[in-house]
Amino acid sequence: MKMKFQLAAAALTVMGVSSPALADDLVLYCSPQIEWCQVMVEAFTRETGINVAMTRKSSGETFAQIKAEADNPRGDVWWGGTGDPHLQAAEEGLTEEYHSPMLEKLHPWAQKQAKQSGYRTVGIYAGALGFGYNSELLDQKGLKAPECWADLTDTALVNEVEIANPNSSGTSYTMLATMVQLMGEDKAFDYLRELHKNIAQYTKSGSAPIKDAARGEVTVGIVFQHDAVTQTVEGFPIVTVAPCEGTGYEIGSMSIIKGGPNPDSAKKFYDFALRADVQELAAEAKAYQVPSNASAKAPPAAPDFSKIKLIDYDFAKYGSSDERSRLLAKWDAEIGSLPK
After folding, report:
1. Can you give the pLDDT at residue 24?
2. Half-sphere exposure of 329 (CA within 13 A, CB side)
């Protein structure tokens, strides 16, 4: 067993979950916030008795790991994270086809995700892109509250904005693809060049920018809106913004890794994770995404999609291997390489 799994197992043992050190019945790669990953592991083990070794990494990092391990798969299930890299993994044959008996219980957008992937991934939650700002810092610095994407390029916000690197973060790749669809590619990259002037740093994790804003390290964090809501619920002075021009959204997804060591346990977890009662456990972890099971109730603090101007996000195109690789390479060449 690899050391990272031993460390994950040890952490879970402290929390009361039986240690998988002797027998890994399920190896879970988890991409949402660690608290939600832990809630899911605890609930699954409690119900089934199946031991779980869990590693938490961002969407981009997890996709890279699964691809690197393709000749010797070590994981069983990839749970959560933006759908684009899940779709790319499906296209590249890194994940298994599975028709869960729970599919008919899901919202149409989640079923569509499954169909588009040849049933190699499925939608488990949805979340709208946006940003959050620290209202106390804004007042202290005499800054105007941003309401639109365009506001984030204001010269008054130099070194006051954070976003993740789209190579490691599904959140940031969603933002990149959203700008291209919202503005057209040329104008989108012009916008990203202007935004770059205000970026304090490109983080590895997609949720890190709003955590930094909550701590007062920067004023604005570009994230999924539910991540900003989490900080507000925690008591930080974070205001969540749905940008006025419109915005993209993610379909957080789940996939069974092709050739994983525990296929039967993988299917059990897959079905488990699609149940309404299990998706409602998100509230325990202060996760405010919209659940994919039509019978599951979203937490009261979750962003209301009916009040957000959403674009018609093209998941098939921007989740394809060629388009995702092309856009990331262009971002590296034209944005990531710019001096600070």
Report:
1. 56
2. 6
What is the mean pLDDT for each group of 10 consecutive residues in the chain (340 residues)? 34 34 76 96 97 95 97 97 94 97 97 96 97 98 97 98 96 97 98 98 95 98 96 97 97 97 98 98 94 95 93 93 96 95
CATH 3.90.1030.10 corresponds to the domain 3-126+250-298: no
User: So what's the pLDDT on residue 277?
Assistant: 98
Concatenating the DSSP letter of every residue in 137-181 gives: HHHHTTPPPP-STGGGG-GGGTT-EEEE-TTT-HHHHHHHHHHHH
239 neighbors 132 (Cβ within 8 angstroms): yes
Kindly report whether the global pTM for this prediction surpasses the value 0.85.
no
Per the CB < 8 A criterion, the answer to whether 125 and 132 are in contact is no
Q: Cα–Cα distance between 254 and 207 in angstroms, integer?
A: 19
Spatial neighbors of 316 by CB under 8 A, at least 6 apart, are 87, 116
CB 81 within 8 A of CB 170: yes
Does domain 128-248+320-336 sit in CATH 2.40.50.320? Answer: no
Domains of the chain by residue range: 3-126+250-298, 128-248+320-336
Check if the beta carbon of residue 86 is closer than 8 Å to that of residue 276: no
- The DSSP symbol for 336 reads I
Measure the CA angle with vertex 170, ends 164 and 173; round to 5°. 70
Measured between alpha carbons, how far is 46 from 13 in angstroms, rounded to an integer?
13
Task: Name the β-bridge partners of 257.
Answer: 95
- CATH topology agreement for domains 3-126+250-298 and 128-248+320-336: yes
Q: Cβ contacts of residue 197 below 8 Å, gap of 6+?
A: 153, 155, 158
Q: CA 275 to CA 101: how far, in whole Å? A: 10
Q: How many Cβ atoms sit within 10 Å of the Cβ of residue 112?
A: 15
Please work out, in degrees rounded to the nearest 5, the angle formed at the alpha carbon of residue 105 by the alpha carbons of 256 and 130: 75
